[in-house]
Amino acid sequence: MLLSLSVQNYALIEHLEIDFSANFSTITGETGAGKSILLGALGLIMGNRADLSALKDKEKKCIVEAAFKIEAYNLQQLFADNDLDYEATTIIRREILPSGKSRAFVNDTPTNLAELQLLTAYLIDIHSQHDTKELEQQEYQLSILDAMGNNAEVLKEYTAQLSTYKSLVKQLEILKEEQRQSSKEEEYNIFLLQELEAANLKSDEQEILEEELETLNNVEVIHENLAKTIALSQEEQIGFLNTLKESKNALQKIASFSSKYEELVARIQSVIIELEDVSDLCAEYVEKVIFDPERMNWLTSRLQLIYDLQKKHYVQTVSELLEIQASLNIKVGRVTGLADEIQALYEKIESQEKQVINLATILSNNRSKAIPDFGSKAEVILKELGIPNAAFQINLIPSISFLTSGKDELQLLFSANKGSNFGTLKKVASGGEMSRIMLAIKSILADFTQLPTIVFDEIDTGVSGEIALKMAEIMKQMSQKRQVFAITHLPQIAAKGNQHYKVSKFIQGETTLSKIEKLASEARIHELAEMLAGKNYTESAITHAKTLLN
């Protein structure tokens, strides 16, 4: 339940702090006194959007804070799912900064408006005059039957299973589209794959082949220079190997005189060994450098094949061609695999569809059982509210497709007078009748839902006298199971509250302000008398007010 409300710098409110009690509370005040401001402040708590026009002083921030007692409503998991700190007395705060930015907090934990709206849907329900339009919406009508049919858990499971079903269907469409595209490309992909497979490419062959071809293209130059190197190294008179060996022999003669000379001998020996190896390799290579036109033609042809494939596939290396080959191999194999996947998915969807249909059937059966109970209860309450011949005709029409709440389309028809034709609420119910129907529904739902607090904003519009008294009695009866507020202009309803709050405007200096206060017994009598007879009420109005209170 709503324990308290604190408002700073909002509309006509400079600063307001008010505590609330359980059961039935009535709120009265002249038109324009600020009752709508109070609802606006609660709307901010519920996550409604706000702008700078809400600030009384544009240089200061607006703060609205509400405390709720929630320990009896099993909301711990909801808090955990949204990373909020759970407290038995939960405080929700909204701040609107002069910059226009808005912030929200739950137990001092920052949160966003979506999470705030989700949470407060479990805490408070504000029903304004315009909300009777909800009655015309099929979703709301179904929600009534779901509450009475105890469908909450089944509906939750249905929603989860329907989501899985839709996900599978979407996945099937994706696979079928992939299959269509793959089938179109299959023949070309097979050709490309066979072409690459026939090439029998090796990842490093391009560099090897290019090197070999370069060698064959320059056989004469290579042969000439290798032979020259061999001659320079091994020529009997001027060969550098013979010269080095002579140098080595000369140094050996003085090596015993110093380790320095001995080191020089060792280094020359190392050079001799290295150069002898170079000379031997040159001799080996010169024997292998043979002009081979057939090999040269094969190399040219092979490399041209590689170059053509690279150009065709817009790549630079054989490795990239091999990657394309692997990808094509997967694509070609995928066509066959897709057919198997699609068939398996069809079977999975069929199984999932059966689960969804089963849950939808349970929902429908529970709704069908709730229809007579709803009709009889609503008709009894409406009879008390001055519509003695009220009658409902409710039909569940099976839908060919899955809807968000089952496979039922609901037709709710109403007749207010005996002998009148049934019609939709929008067509046959007046504004006053709609308000009474909504009150009847809220009264019925009070036995089936766990909503902590409900606020009726002038639901009594268009009624008076005995009907107003009956409406007040119904709201008071509802308040035995939840906290109920009624914003009203009717003294008959205001008098039924366990506590009575008055909203009023006053002038302070050059500023008009709004306030709300809880009325003590004497002040309450005078407020009711004023509601009955105006500001210049008489003693008889006082007596009438006392009678209403008693």
Q: Which residues sit in consecutive blocks of at least 5 with pLDDT less than 50?
A: none
Our Rg estimate from Cα atoms comes to 46 Å
Number of helices: 17
- Distance, first to last CA: 27 Å
The pLDDT mean sits at: 87
Form type = elongated
Fraction in beta strands: 15-25%
The level of helicity is: 55-70%
Major sheet summary line: 6 strands, antiparallel
Care to give the gist of this entry?
It is built from 17 helices and 15 strands.
Please give a structural write-up.
The chain has helices at residues 35-45, 76-81, 113-120, 138-148, 152-199, 205-217, 219-234, 240-252, 259-288, 293-313, 318-384, 425-428, 431-445, 465-478, 491-494, 521-533, 539-549; strands at 2-10, 13-19, 24-28, 62-69, 89-96, 102-106, 109-111, 124-127, 391-403, 406-415, 423-424, 453-457, 483-487, 499-508, 511-518. Helices cover 55% and strands 19% of the residues. Strand 1 and strand 2 form a beta hairpin. The strands form 3 sheets. The chain has a 6-stranded antiparallel beta sheet. Strands 8-12-13-3-14-15 form a 6-stranded mixed beta sheet. It has a 3-stranded antiparallel beta sheet with strand order 9-10-11. The longest helix has 67 residues, at 318-384.
